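Tokens for chain A. Residues wanted.
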């Protein structure tokens, strides 16, 4: 994989938010609900009633996303990196799209902070996915064993 340090750094960077937000949400769901982001902003409690089950599921899903991104950063195997980036892009895009529908609940500064943070994950995932998929030397070649599909052998 070309520029492995850059790819690894970007994967770790993408993992930080789901790692910390996921852990906070899973282990301290009420604090996440009533005081996220930390301080006086209160973004989550403006969007509906507290639901511990939903928050635990969300926190667990974010931790799963972070684990996949960190494993991809550790192994740097192209297929794992691509899978991690697709998963990150799907989650980030869905989260961003949802928050585009809730802008009336927040001040302009809160909308800017929230949406910029969310779109950053979408764009970084997409850019790194494009780079990884098209970087010289990363595409499988004819006869490549490491990246080719398993052979269909007759018994």
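Reply:
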């Amino acid at each position: 994989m070309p520029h492995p340090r850059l790819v690894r750094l970007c994967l770790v960077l993408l993992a930080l938010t789901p790692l910390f937000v996921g852990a906070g949400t899973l282990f301290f769901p009420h604090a996440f609900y009533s005081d996220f982001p930390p301080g006086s902003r209160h973004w989550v409690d403006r969007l509906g009633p507290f639901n511990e089950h939903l928050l635990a599921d969300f926190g667990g899903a974010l931790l799963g996303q972070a684990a996949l991104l960190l494993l991809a950063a550790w192994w740097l195997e192209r297929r794992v990196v691509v899978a991690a980036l697709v998963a990150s892009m799907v989650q980030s895009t869905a989260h961003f799209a949802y928050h585009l529908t809730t802008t009336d609940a927040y001040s302009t500064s809160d909308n800017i902070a929230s949406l910029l943070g969310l779109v950053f994950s979408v764009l970084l995932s997409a850019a790194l996915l494009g780079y990884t998929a098209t970087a010289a030397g990363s595409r499988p070649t004819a006869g490549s064993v490491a990246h080719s599909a398993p052979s269909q052998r007759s018994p």
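The chain has a mean pLDDT of 89. The chain has one domain: 4-134.
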